[in-house]
Amino acid sequence: MDELIFFINRVLISGTVLGSIYALGAIGVTLIFGILRFAHFAHGDMMTMGAFIAFVLATALAAMGVVLPLPLGFIVLPVAMVITAVIALGIDKGFYAPLRARGAKPVTLLIASIGVTLMIQGLVRLIFGSGTQSIYVGQPKEIFRLDMSWAGGSRPISITEPQLLMFIVTALLVVALHLFLTRSRLGKAMRAMADNAALAQVSGINTALVVRVTWVIAGSLACVAGTMLALDVALMPDLAFNIVLPIFAAAIVGGLGHAYGAIVGGFLIAFAETLAVFNWTAVLRPLNGVLPEAMQLPANLALVPTEYKLTVAFVILVITLLVRPTGIFKGAST
Amino acid sequence: MALIELKHVVGGYGGAPILNGVNMAIDKSDIGVIVGPNGAGKSTTLKAIFGLLKVTGGTIDFGGENIANSLPDKLVPKGLSFVPQEKNVFTSMSVEENLEMGAFTRTDDFSDTMDWVYAMFPVLAEKRRQPAGELSGGQRQMVAMGRALMSKPSLLMLDEPSAGLSPRYVIEIFETIQRVNQEGVGILMVEQNARQALAFASKGFVLAGGQNRYTGTGAELIADPEVAKSFLGG
């Protein structure tokens, strides 16, 4: 029983947490690609930026003496989302829109987004330093422990408060996005433009408006993903830059331009990573009693050492590109 | 007054002009057909009207104003609609969603227009939930026309509506266009099946080198031995 509890804590919960973050990031990447046809390399740093905005707001609330039952990082999330969305719009207007107006190739926009990456990272380091910050500002991280002694387990299933909140928020956002894309006029116009931009223009769809909506959605979701990552781990300037690869892998595996694909891809990559670095001995230990002396399980039986976790996303990405370049859902291929 | 009138329209993609003075006038009751050899500027004329390329000279009068270089999101609400030759449906979206996108610029209730389109193309009503990418070539062409009609245009422009269709469908598409015209929508289309299309046309325009070569009713152009010899394959 303890083995199962250990598996739930280490794989199921961690995988879902990571999957939520990847999914929210990958939705932004995939929407931007679908509408603007370029790989937005700076998306990780947009997440970091969102997290720092939430950090500033939470610190300000704490300084005003506000004490609430939920982590302040969560309370300020709606405001942080709005601010990040506005900054995302500003970045587009300042850096990408002028290039698009000149008919720049997607590669040019990609390089520009690398520039934006460096700029955001530089700004964050300039303002907050390169050290690690805590977004909890004095609040303890609450941990819920689900007692499993009734089932013969000696350890509880434990889940932290931010993790629980993260599941709820991710689920709500995904449902909201689904309703937006399938029910609303603008959401459908977004899908139409991702499907066939020239025809969307010919139909009289206001493509500039669709572009703005895309940045608002991508920016605000990036803010949520970044803040969650900061709540789950810690806040630092290269917070999300390190997970740009798995996020792009998730978007590509799911099928570029396909929002649902990005969600599936995000969870797929997250669970693959989590399972790959999981120490299987912890679960298989009871077998040691049955196995002969020579075949005893080693102390650490992980498929991939933890420090090589990123290679998992990379391997999945390469396999996808070889076997099914359009992704799980049929996405855009260029 | 004509529904749309082009006077000495000059335009192109930025380099040397492709249109060197095109003249055209279409009434609400007209089916106008543009024919001519490859590179004559037939599709370019439609794109110039629809703001998809730069007009550097002349005027395009539509509804009492010069619409040259206006963009589609301004032209569609004014009553102009365009069906491109290729990639003219949203393949990943359902038939009904395709139609809704055609009505994007409308803020009023468009359910009666949708019923009207479904009445015109009953097969689309059956397949309304199906992705447009799964339909046959002829049915896709219906979706494309239906999408363009959703904005309740007074002028519908079609770029080679019969391209890639089997002969049976070509007749059907022409008959449908005629029906749309009888419902009070002016038509201006480019056609490769020149002789067949001119037979339907109330106005025909033979373009060559970005200029009008011959203008007349469809029947006149077919009967003209010069036109027949040079442009209709004898």
Automatic annotation (TrEMBL), chain A:
Primary location group: membrane
GO molecular function: L-isoleucine transmembrane transporter activity; L-leucine transmembrane transporter activity; L-phenylalanine transmembrane transporter activity; L-valine transmembrane transporter activity
Pfam family, one: BPD_transp_2
GO BP term, example: L-alanine transport
Subcellular location: Cell membrane
CDD domains tied to this protein: TM_PBP1_LivH_like
UniProt cross-references to InterPro entries, sorted A to Z: ABC_transp_permease, BCAA_transport_permease
UniProt KW keywords: Amino-acid transport, Cell inner membrane, Cell membrane, Membrane, Transmembrane, Transmembrane helix, Transport
Transmembrane feature ranges: 12-36, 48-68, 74-95, 107-128, 164-181, 209-233, 239-256, 263-282, 302-323
GO CC annotation terms, alphabetical: plasma membrane
Membrane-protein topology: Multi-pass membrane protein
PANTHER family: BRANCHED-CHAIN AMINO ACID TRANSPORT SYSTEM PERMEASE PROTEIN LIVH, HIGH-AFFINITY BRANCHED-CHAIN AMINO ACID TRANSPORT SYSTEM PERMEASE PROTEIN LIVH
Similarity remark: Belongs to the binding-protein-dependent transport system permease family. LivHM subfamily.
Protein's UniProt name: Branched-chain amino acid transport system permease protein
From TrEMBL, chain B:
PROSITE patterns according to UniProt: ABC_TRANSPORTER_1, ABC_TRANSPORTER_2
Assigned keywords, A-Z: Amino-acid transport, ATP-binding, Nucleotide-binding, Transport
Coiled coil: none
Family as reported in the entry's similarity comment: Belongs to the ABC transporter superfamily.
GO biological process terms held by the UniProt record: L-amino acid transport
Cited InterPro entries: AAA+_ATPase, ABC_transporter-like_ATP-bd, ABC_transporter-like_CS, BCAA_Transport_ATP-bd_LivF, P-loop_NTPase
Protein name: Branched-chain amino acid transport system ATP-binding protein
Record flagged with keyword Nucleotide-binding: yes
Lineage: Bacteria, Pseudomonadati, Pseudomonadota, Alphaproteobacteria, Hyphomicrobiales
Cited SMART domains: AAA
Example GO molecular function: branched-chain amino acid transmembrane transporter activity
Domain annotation ABC transporter: ranges: 4-234
